[in-house]
Amino acid sequence: MDEINELIKWWSQNYGVAALYDTAGEKITVGVAGKCRFCGKDNSETTFRNKAHAISDSLGNRKIISLDECDECNGLFGRTIEDHLGRYMAAPRAISQIIGKRGVPSYKTKQKKSRLSTTEGCLSIENHEDDSFVEIDENNKTVTYTMTRQSYSPISVYKAFVKMAISIAPQSLLPYLNEANRWVRSQNSNHISFPPFIFEGFIPGLTPFQNNIWTTLLVRKTNTPSPGVVFVLQVSNYLFQIPIPSPIIDADLGVESISMQMFPTPFDLSNPCGAVKRWPKKMEGHDLIQNDEFKITQKCIEMTPVDISNKKIQKNAEDK
Ligand SMILES: [Zn+2]
After folding, report:
1. Domain interval for residue 270
2. Structure pTM?
């Protein structure tokens, strides 16, 4: 508890809030229509017909909409970095039932025997002993899932997060993100400020944010040796804390040894479904990462065994 209160104090002393959005209420638009914040082209040079999501719609965002992302940039992001974000998040979305463009993805193990899918809002899991991805601990009433992500390019996933940070940045911050903007749209995989890394986290429980998205962009206001701009994104059970490269703001840092404090959430103070877990992750390189496993544990309030050898029960369950 004391540690969390210290963190709250540290963030409010060292960082200011540049942007803050959530999807709990009405639709929100970001940016000024008529000129693309990414390529700088205006109405006379490009078009703005397609709906552009400031936070990727593959993460379930329907409400935070960009007015200043042109169709060319929207198409480029969709074909490149957002495709990798979609692959990175497919398995986590399956288990947390996050609805994207094409509904909730299903999940299959490599052997394709065991699987997990959502039918009419209910999570249905088929787990075979010889191809198991689910471990049940009846004494501690926990269920642990070990899932494998689809292959992804780490630098592209990281760029997709940087792109979202640029999308929600206020106009006054954009000049400080120019280099990051050019880098996100390029094929360049070398870093421009510090080697890319993220903090990722998991909040146990059923839809801790009621499947709302909460996001903020923070800018450093002291000379503490921490990234100049930090993007925080909370989606369903998942937390992401991403340092955003800004060579102008980061010029005063020894960027090779950059560090970042953990951004606290209300769930760190108390969560009946288990403690929030976080881990740092390097996001360097273009090469596809195959077989990236992640493990999550949910604590159950009740566990009731059901005899599925009884066909009648199985059939009734299917009928519902
Ligand atoms: Zn554009």
Report:
1. 2-90+151-298
2. 0.93
